[in-house]
Design goal:
With 76 residues, this protein is mainly α. The chain contains three helices and no strands. The protein has one domain. The longest helix is centred in the C-terminal third of the chain and has 16 residues.
Length: 76
């Protein structure tokens, strides 16, 4: 929410799923992207390829990958 606010976008963060493996994380990202047409990165830019949920999810996941490998990965 803070990152989106800094980009001038009003946002609310909500946990909708918890996963322990990369394929499940990408699956939930794809599902979210298919049902939410205005998906944006933390800087407020639209997610490229949002019409192709597989490619869009891969793009988002790659940005978050470093956060998943640390001690605080559950918070990513």
């Amino acid at each position: 929410s803070e990152a989106m606010g800094a980009a001038g976008v009003v946002a609310k963060a909500e946990v909708t799923a918890a996963v322990s493996r990369e394929p499940k994380a990408k699956y939930f990202l794809q599902k979210f992207i298919r049902t939410h047409s205005q998906v944006r990165h933390a800087n407020g830019e639209p997610v490229p390829g949002a019409k192709n949920s597989t490619k869009a999810a891969a793009s988002v996941y790659e940005q978050w990958r470093p956060q998943f490998s640390g001690r605080e990965r559950r918070n990513a």
